[in-house]
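During the no-cost extension, the postdoctoral fellow (Dr. R.K.) reprocessed legacy sequence entries with the updated structure-token encoder. One reprocessed record is reproduced below for audit purposes.
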Amino acid sequence: MFVHLHCHSHYSFLRGVASPEEIVAGAVEQDMPAVALTDTNGLYAAVPFYQAAKKTGVKPIVGVALDVGWSQDRREIPRFARNDGNKSSATLVLLATNMEGYSSLCQLVTLRHLGTTKLAQNAAAAEIDGRPVTLQELAEHSRGVIALCPLPARSRDASTTQADADGHAQEVSDTSRQSLVTSHQSPVTNHFSQLKEIFGDRLYIEVQHLSPGDGRVLREAARIGRELGVPLVATNNVHFLRPEEHLHHRAVNAIRTGGLLTTVAPPEITSGEAWFKPAAEMQKCFPDHPGWLQATLEIADRCNLQLELGKLIFPEFPVPDNESAFSYLWKLSFAGARKRYKPLRPEVLSRLTHELEVIEKLHLAPYFLLVWDIVEEARRRGIPAVARGSAASSIVTYCLGISCVCPLRWGLYFERFLNEQRGDCPDIDIDICGARRDELLDYVYAHWGAEHVAMIGSFITMHARLAVREVAKAFGVPPGEVDRFTKRLPHRPVREILSAIRGLPECRDLPIDDEPWKTILQVALRLDDAPRHLGIHPCGTVISARPLTWLTPLERATKGIVVTQYDMNAIEALGLIKMDLLGQRGFTTMSLALDNIERTLRPVGAGLGPPAVPKAA
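Re-encoded structure tokens follow.
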């Protein structure tokens, strides 16, 4: 038996082809008991992968293929040597065995992208491009982690072959290969000795058989394993599901590097053998070493990560002495009710009491206090802020001043906002004056701490005409022809374009059945909706009780803004609190208009006081 422990999905961003769900489906189809997801320098799809695997009964192994620098000095901070085949870094596959290991991965990935886990508000973006983590950092965050390490690039490249644009190997001479491997034996052995000091029996030497020249590398790896007592494990560096998808793999890498399909070459692309092979195919690759395949099952047995999904994690809201979060919320709500409703009628008391009882039952008092605090701070600063959407259906939000709509007057049902049958956290979206949104965000960062707050990431995807355009450029189609073709395509998903073209008179003469457009459209269809890079959610902010890097990796997006590698769905699944703070230009316009009116009227003795508290009907 065998399980794949080194798999890249399309969340490796223009490297892999398959989605995490397709990788899980592949494991189910081949009757594998477990499968790992190890995207490049990121855990972007860890949560949806975990959920998909759990639903099918396959054990999910959460991991990452991480850049790690190796040198004689553990503390030396390595840098990428751009366009240098002798860069002093290797890619290690790191797998989480438990929750502690998962947190270690989150912190290591954050280090890879930010250079630190100690975040400071508005810190300079010193590590915009990221850097490999040091061996010292790896040692500090190695608990609960299994490491699979291949031979370092220089010795491996000396023993393998170079692939041409079609993926066909061109072998180097045996004499040259042997001399290069021999010359690097000592540093390579030292490299694995350092890793063994860090991981102990959780270190494995990763071996692959992806080209004819890999046989000599396998013998060298076996020698080092015997010398140091480190076991070997077989992987296949999966980047696509089926052999015919090597074309798609080459296409996405050409898009990523800005090159052409005919010129993209290793190390940017991998071999045509790096597909999701069944166990029988892997046995053919390692006929004399069944133990290397068996080691994958042993590692899978050691990985038993259990993510606590759906359990809300609230930051601890500071309350006065001798008060709980709920008792303080109760007092604030009734104090607000006395201001909003004069007299305080029985139906108000009944509705308010019922809502507070539901809030207490679901343990949501800290969340309401958190939102109240942000809105109160906005009010103290004179920043227009008010809740939108279903939050207006709650009399608690109305009494706290979060909403300005009386639900009793307008017959709004509380269950539309918060239903105790659902049990999830309600969503209170706050509209804020667009010109001063950053000021309020600065307060949130300062109040809760920069290590506990971040913007939520989102994924910019390949879709519709963009996918066709990018693939056509990779195929070397002249820019003018690409423009003429894509401008006539309908604004629909790629999967619907072919049928739409045949039905639209203005598109009927497009050469969709002629090469290269026929193949271009087929490749673009496979890449439809695949993530291209990480973006920023327009308004989502996450606030955590513990430092965020315990539960989610962070990286720097555009403009140097630190964001989570998880999107809003994964953040909510982890139980983290998501706040939607939306900048509204309309509020800005109204504020400026009121200021102008006040300045105009003041010379004649008139003025505008603060807006009156809305009264209930």
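Confidence is low (pLDDT under 50) at residues 80-87, 122-127, 157-185, 607-617. The chain has 22 helices and 15 strands. The remaining legacy entries will be reprocessed before the final report is submitted.
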